[in-house]
Amino acid sequence: MMDHEKSWKVIKSEDGPDLKLFKARFDYMQNLQNGLTERMIILEGADSTNIIPVLPDGRFLLVRQYRFGTRSTTLELPGGIVDPGEASLRAAKRELREETGYTSTRWTYLGKVPSNPVFMDSYIHHWLAEDVALTAATDMDDGEFTEPLLVSPADIKRYLKAGKLEHPHTISALTRYLL
Question: Can you tell me the distance from the alpha carbon of 163 to that of 144, in angstroms, rounded to the nearest whole number?
Fold first, then answer.
């Protein structure tokens, strides 16, 4: 079996444009199998977190949110960017409160996945928040608006199977939790 990490060599890197949420970088990568060099774009960005909020009665808390990339409204788990120097748990607690007004004292880390390993260098940290309760007003960023929605466990599974949950980070987190 080939060690793919040793089949590519970084020749050089160049800074690219600042894209608000990301900074572009161009890596010139030499394929050691054929000697050819490719210019690859990498988006450098902060890690993010998403939260599976579960109420004491077992219902899940999701949010409807407009997504600029697809120009559509998605049904997904709350979450957001981890600020510089911030731990992912602290970010998860902050994002849950800001986007929904809900909080929790019972948190479990479910692991992390790459945001998109094809061209991004960041990770998504999945957190489970149990016994969530509405304790505060929402406090969203200027560029976001969310609408909280309570969903039964049966509906979560039905939504997953029917493709009503499209955000890959939501699907990843729920898969870790439900399987």
Answer: 23
What is the domain partition of the chain in residue ranges? 4-44, 48-178
99-146 per-position pLDDT tens digit: 999 999 999 999 999 999 999 999 999 999 999 999 999 988 787 888
Q: What is the DSSP string of 18-35?
A: E-SS-EEEEEEEEETTT-
Whole-model pTM? 0.91
Kindly state which CATH superfamily the domain 48-178 is placed in.
Answer: Nucleoside Triphosphate Pyrophosphohydrolase (3.90.79.10)
**CA-based nearest residue to 60, from 144, 138, 158:** 158
CA angle 40, 21, 60 (to 5 degrees): 110
Q: Report how far residue 141's alpha carbon sits from residue 84's, in angstroms, rounded to the nearest whole number.
A: 16
Tokens coding 129: 């928040």
- Measured CA to CA, the distance from residue 33 to residue 46 in angstroms comes to 32
